[in-house]
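Intended use. Records like the one below are meant for learning the mapping from a protein sequence to its folded structure. Do not use them to infer anything beyond what is encoded.
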Amino acid sequence: MLLALALLAGGTALGLYLALGGEPGNVSNPNVEFTDSGTTPKPPKPKQLSWPVYGYTPERTRYLDAPAVHPPFKRVWLAKLGHLIEFQPVLANGVLYVVPNDGVARAVDAGTGKVRWKTRVGSLNASSPAFYRGDLYIATLSKRITALRAKDGKRRWKRNLPSRSESSPVVIEGTLYVGSEDGTVYAIKAATGRILWTYRAGGAVKGGLAYSGGRLYFGDYNGQVTALQAKNGKRIWQSGTQGRSFGRSGNFYSTAAVKYGRVYIGNTDGFVYSFSARTGQLAWRHRTGAYVYAAPAVANVKGTPPTVYIGSYDQNFYALDARSGNVRWKYNARGRISGAPTVIGRVVYFSELGNKTTSGLDVRSGRRVFKLSSGAFNPAISDGRRLYITGYSSLYGFEPRGRVARKPPKARPHRRKAQPRPKARPHRKHPKRRLDPSQFQKR
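Structure written out for the chain above:
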């Protein structure tokens, strides 16, 4: 995202680049395997719901089936943090955990918007933390990975890296996976910070790693998409963009999403790509008019086909058929889109970097049903009851208007385990004392 901010004239440059080079256009290979069960898993009950990683699931699909969370909304709180927030918070146990660009991690009460604690983890940050079993894991542009206790922000461990990282971590069965700017992918023991294995990619790995079925998927700044075995880091397949054969491959900043047996990812060459998750075969690519830094959201919302939702620097937001790559609908946002969208219920939310607003579109038609005059990158998450929006430097808590919405669970206080109380002594009945009349004096 930091690089994206420096390339404000990128759309024009890319247009000239494509025109001069004769870059091939769209491709669709409908015979590449595609798995669609036709059913959408039910989300956990609201009181149990958390949003533990960037993208909601390890597959980074960015979709929550919560149709009750729908505009119009009423704002219930606003938390002004005073620093740019490129990557949205994660959510667990009624607390939002966020790390703005100032490198200070914050715990924000999801019920009130009050900051519960702050801990500095670096001097510059551009990633979301990951929550796993009571701890937070944060990769920073200060060349380190830090593990914090979620209840109070106390540091559990810290590991310095040879290069910076803006790859939002994911933790699977006690192992943390993260990429870095020198192209190294790390598997780290979450409990101790010990490095288990590393893999060296051909270029910087800036996006988060997506995990599905024992595999890790990511793109790099050498224009390659790679699948690794999560247990040992061995490469399964690697696929490049068509532009590599012309010596001018674009960069993969986008975090990949894995769904329907496919990998979906955007590239700065202006295309959105889909590869077979099993073999790496190109399924389709669709050209936009400019850089695609954004990560995609992938969802099969009731009443719509499986769809990839993604924005571009060409100021358009796209709904692409997940199987073929064909355009279902397109919305002119009138502003560059650099961050990832999120689908919550039947609405997809995204922010425009150019005019710093956040919009919500009906996934069936592309009609706008929500607008907030704040935003820049990755805007929305939810707990199934409320909507939490990340503005430019603030967090917002919204709940649906026109119905009685139950408040999210209060942040659980962290207290020491209470000691058992001593058993109460049984009450003894005292025998009635007989009074001797001779003891009383007559008045």
